[in-house]
Amino acid sequence: MLKYIIFIWMAMLTSVGFAQIVNTVCIGSIHNYKVDGDVGSVYKWHINGGTIISDPIQDSIIVKWGNTGGICQIYVIETSIHGCIGDTVFSQVIVNPLNHVTVNGPNEICIGESITLTAINATSTIWSNGSTNQSITVYPTLSSTYNLIGTTICSIDTISHFITVHPNPQADFISSNNSPVVGENINLIYTGTPVVSYSWFDFNNLFSSQFNPNYTIENKTSTNFSLFVKNQFGCMDSISKTIITLGSVNVWIPNSFTPNGDGLNDVFKAEAETEVKDFSFYIYNRWGQLVFESKNINIGWDGRFNGEAAQQGVYTWVLTYNSDNNRNIASRKTGQVTLLL
What pTM did the predictor assign? Predict the structure, then answer.
């Protein structure tokens, strides 16, 4: 009597018992199945999920599996030469879908970036760089093709994945004035390669997205500008520059003083909030005589001339100095002061 179903494929024999998995196949594939019964018996085969393409009453059949994956059944009934019907023997076959291997990963990057490529559905892989890992990370500097041979239960696929490497932009800019003073309006002029977006920062604060923005200098010492740009491929670059602020020197001169020794307003001199370079201070009486001169802003006139107290009245002064600490810009001022006793 019939005991089991035998799967014959590539000269391999496998036998199983009732309702066991006979083998694993792929959809659309063709396989041979055989039973070990009595001599002279006839058989009635039934296939769930496939089609018998040979004589269905023999002890072996050829089956073409359908296009639906899953667990399918084979069962067979033996009738002996004497007309006796034996037991029904069941077995199962796993029918796998044709899941082809694909590669997952971007097709475009920027120079300097890395990219990870992953084989999908593959049970084993071999990449063109020799790796057998499921995923590889590459750092192409030129547009390149990466090949994969991927194996599944039902197929061997060769896939080519092309990566386009785009150039990065080159950010740069100049200032309409590299030596501005506080309150001055300057123009920042983009001079880099063509891009589609601009982000201008001062001290890490975004202040403009324009091509050539205007900017008013507010910091007394320096201003740090950073520019981030992006080209049509989404590739980015940045650059930072510091613009030094030039400090203008302002000098104040009183219009009167009282050198009477009371400790209040006894000395006539110039005053400034910052250091003054190339300082020269001259005072003349009404007859044009030079009564005082100084090369130091901290040394002023005490109201004496030739060792004696000068006469009360109006005196003329002339002042020259460098009006900017970072540039040699000479300034000259004149005026009058009243000496009161």
Answer: 0.60
